Amino acid sequence: MNAASFEVNLARRVIERFNLSPPVDVESVAYRYAMVEHCPIPLQVDGICLNLKRPGIRPTIIVNLDRPLRRRRFTLAHELGHVLIPWHRGSLYDDFSLSDRERTFDRWEMEGEANRFASELLMPSDWISEVQTLANNFGRAVSWVQEQAEVSMIASAIRLIGIASANHIFAHCDDTGFVLNSGRSPGTLANAPAWNEDLDRSYLDGNAADRGEILAGGTCLYWWRFPDEVALAEPNDPRDWRSILQEIIDDLVAFDNDKPRVRQSINGVIGATNSSRRGSSAEELLAALMQRFDSKRAQGGIFPELPRHPNFRDFLIRRVKTLRGVGP
Ligand SMILES: [Zn+2]
Q: Residues whose CB is under 5 A from ligand 1 (ion)?
């Protein structure tokens, strides 16, 4: 395990001191360090912390009673993080729907610290890795954790994606398929779906080795696991990779002047992926390239069209075969 940050170690000390295990009684722990009130707050606020680190004054945590219970549990753990982390001072108003862009850098750092504290307190590392192993797929782990730790589905998904093996992606959507939140596990090349846009599942569903969805409170969590390896099926197209690529470019690029630049950027993606995956098998390289090209779709230009071209897969297979010296 990597060296844990200050706030994660702090949460572990609290867990040890009060001998806690999920579902953590965050209410009684918070009472040890602060005055806690639950009341409706007629503002877009999840919680408020008053009088942090003011000598002689006990800090106060106010949790917005208008929010769902599991979200309030996370808010309380988050506010407790502000109370216990020594450099969080003054009074803080927490609105979790605020985007990172709307915050100052210092505030953004503090929110990250309080969130990591809350996440560790409610879903301790040892416990969560055990659950992950037992559940043996991402969706089952998310459901299990949200029930056992009494946290929201999204808190469970964010916690689990951080420790999931490479090639996992999730998207949390409202009932119209609009992406509220998304994430990918460490080592995943494909991009997680963009926030605040409609979810486009076509690529994800079409290429996943395993996938699922969980409904909760009018929202849906979609998850996908991509293969570590993709078999090099014999291409339908007998031509070499250069000819296939030329045809794809001719189909997708209208002006001859633009073609050399497009060819160069495609070859650039392949070169960069190949050098980052030295020593990988041909099948692993093909899986990595498919994800890398998918992640490039957000860049625009030719990239959104490429994976949809009927000969693109054949081109990648031919290219991988020559790079790995396993065929023309
Ligand atoms: Zn906060």
A: 94, 111, 114
